[in-house]
Amino acid sequence: MSLDSRRTDARPERLTAHEARQRLEHERASRLTQLKAIEEAGPDTAEQAMSAQKDTVRRVLAEVEAAFVRVRDGSYGVCRGCSGAIPVERLEILPYTRFCVPCQRDAV
Fold it and tell me: Quick one: how far is CA 76 from the chain centroid?
């Protein structure tokens, strides 16, 4: 019996295009639901807060749509700052991100 217990369930370095599309479709559906809820809230809610929320949701939707383009052209998961691979764990959390964590800090 060997004491060598190698992991056979290692995470891939990159998401597949199918996995990326699934995550992005979920993100888009969530943001569209948020936007609809904001719009249906009506005039009783604070107008300024609602406007800011709408702007944020629309910005994220634009980033999601841009990520779909990156999936199609093969550049999804490649950092726009350093051209390195964006870790899968980051893409699982923010499937539309364009930057790895170090480059995101520099971009802000």
Answer: 11
Each residue's pLDDT tens digit, 60-71: 999 999 999 999
* Closest of 45, 71, 46 to residue 95, by C-alpha: 71
pTM score, whole prediction:
0.63
Handedness of CA 16, 56, 32, 72 (dihedral sign): negative
- Residue ranges and CATH numbers for the domains of the chain are 17-107 (1.20.120.910)
C-alpha to C-alpha distance for 79 and 92, rounded to whole angstroms: 15
C-alpha pair distances (Å), 2 with each of 5, 6, 8, 10, 84: 8, 10, 15, 19, 36
Q: Three-class SS of residue 85? A: strand
| C-alpha gyration radius of the chain | 18
